[in-house]
Design a protein that fits this description.
CATH superfamily of the largest domain: Trigger factor, C-terminal domain
Radius of gyration: 34 Å
Number of helices: 14
Number of strands: 11
Number of domains: 3
Largest sheet: 5 strands, antiparallel
Distance between the termini: 67 Å
Structural class: alpha+beta
CATH architecture of the largest domain: Orthogonal Bundle
Helix content: 40-55%
CATH class of the largest domain: Mainly Alpha
Shape: elongated
Order of helices and strands: EEHHEEEHEHEEEEHHHHHHHHEHH
Length: about 450
């Protein structure tokens, strides 16, 4: 095998490789000879088919197979002998015309981009602050109260009682209604309901709907003029005015069960204290997740500033294309970031190009930290994560697991975040991390907004 370097520019490398015809021919003939020993053709004894007939019938197919294997092995040898670590799959171009004819030496070109040489920083010099919060007692009681409300029952208020008190539904009471919604005089999908429940003062309907029914009595028909919010989930309705004709059928009072041991037992807990601890534990887990997210973001910000090496253009291009597709999808769905709407194309491409470069550079650094320190995702960890992901698709768990099995790229989309978290944990163990206890509101606040306020 003859290898000639044709390109060495930055992270780009190029080689011309020539494989001798004699080696390829010998390999093909060996394969055909082995094949002939197992062939069964009419007129010949098993395994006794003459070599010329085997070559005539199967020579082209076997030549293609030999060429593919030879090119693959030669390319790998080029990489191994030179200690090259490609960023993506090398590009192969055959130079020899009609290569399966095996009439001449096989010449092909290999082009690739290398992963950059990365010098790992001293993780012991990284200083971070982990903010954390404890669940206050009033938050637990508030959560218990919200749970109890979900188990509330509705008790109709007799019409005579409503007449006697002199007013219709008030804040906190619940109406049973039928309604039909129209835009420009035409009923729209999802705008009609029967026996819907509307809490006066509740937030389950668009602004102006529940408020427009305050004081309503059974049998009353009201026409409500409302406008769907600009951020409404359906872009066909977002920002549009609508008219709802609402027929009130019943006014109800909501009976919320007492939060006690009996209520806890209905939720499969032995005592109220057990339920209270479960609520506290769930909220603490949410706080801990936010704390983890914040320190992880801070660490990645620090690492991105320490990552000073060239980025392979091919990987950067892939990352940018993915980000740009997401932007275009957001535009089509009407969910584009408000601050992006006022930017021209050139500015957007520059902004998202910088984001793509940061992501790639940080990702390469994390991967190198994992490689150098032998950090990897075990099969057990991966299988558990794949199972958890599949369980998110109720009724389709088996199909999702089969998809993961058939499509390695889907499995990699699960493996990647797992590896990233393990690398982050490794670095946090070595970094100088101080802890600060804050209030839940401070924990949940946007750090950038907090800095601006200060």
């Amino acid at each position: 095998m003859q290898v000639t370097e044709t390109l060495s520019e930055g992270l780009k490398r190029g080689y011309t490789v020539v494989l001798p015809l004699a080696d390829l021919d010998a390999r093909r003939n060996e394969r055909l000879t082995t094949l002939g020993k197992t062939l069964r053709l009419p007129g010949f004894r098993p395994g006794k088919v003459p070599f010329p007939i085997v070559k005539q019938r199967y020579g082209t197919a076997v030549s293609a197979e030999v060429l593919e294997e030879s090119v693959s092995e030669a390319t790998q040898k080029v990489l191994t002998d030179r200690g090259l670590r490609p960023a993506l799959q090398p590009k192969i171009d055959l130079v020899t015309e009609n290569p399966t004819a095996l009439a001449a030496d096989l010449e092909f070109k290999v082009e690739l981009e290398l992963l950059p040489d990365i010098t790992l920083p001293d993780f012991g010099t990284i200083e971070l602050k982990r903010v954390k919060a404890e669940v206050p007692a009033d938050k637990i009681e508030q959560a218990l109260s919200e749970i109890a409300k979900r188990y509330a029952t509705l008790e109709p208020i007799p019409a005579e009682t409503i007449e006697a008190r002199g007013h219709g539904a008030v804040n906190g009471e619940v109406l049973t209604v039928d309604f039909v919604g129209k835009i420009d005089g035409v009923a729209f999908e999802g705008g009609t309901a029967t026996d819907a429940v509307v809490e006066i003062g509740g937030k389950d309907f668009i602004p102006g709907f529940a408020e427009g029914l305050e004081g309503a009595k059974p049998g009353e028909v009201r026409t409500l003029n409302v406008t769907f919010p600009e951020t409404y989930g359906s872009k066909d309705l977002a920002g549009k005015p609508a008219v709802f004709e609402v027929t009130v059928k019943q006014v109800n009072t909501s009976i919320v069960p007492a939060v006690d041991d009996e209520f806890a037992k209905k939720l499969a807990f032995e005592t109220l204290d057990d339920l209270r601890e479960a609520v506290r534990s769930r909220q603490q887990s949410e706080f801990d997740d936010v704390s983890r997210m914040r320190i992880k973001k801070d660490l990645l910000d620090v690492l991105s500033k320490l990552a000073d090496f060239p980025v392979p253009p091919s990987i950067l291009s892939q990352e940018f294309d993915q980000i740009w597709r997401q932007l275009e999808q957001a535009r089509e769905a009407g969910t584009e970031d408000a601050e992006d709407k006022g930017k021209d194309e050139a500015t957007l491409r520059a902004d998202y190009g910088a984001i793509a470069e940061r992501r790639v550079r940080t990702g390469l650094l994390l991967a190198e930290i994992g490689r150098v320190n032998g950090i990897a995702v075990t099969e057990q960890e991966l299988n558990q994560a794949l199972y958890r992901r599949a369980m998110q698709f109720t009724g389709q768990e088996a199909q999702m697991l089969e998809l993961f099995r058939k499509h390695p790229q889907l499995t990699d989309s699960v493996r990647g975040p797992l590896l990233e978290d393990k690398v982050v944990d490794f670095v946090l163990e070595l970094a100088k991390v101080t802890e600060e206890t804050v209030t839940p509101d401070e924990l949940m606040a946007d750090p950038e907004e907090t800095k601006a306020a200060a």
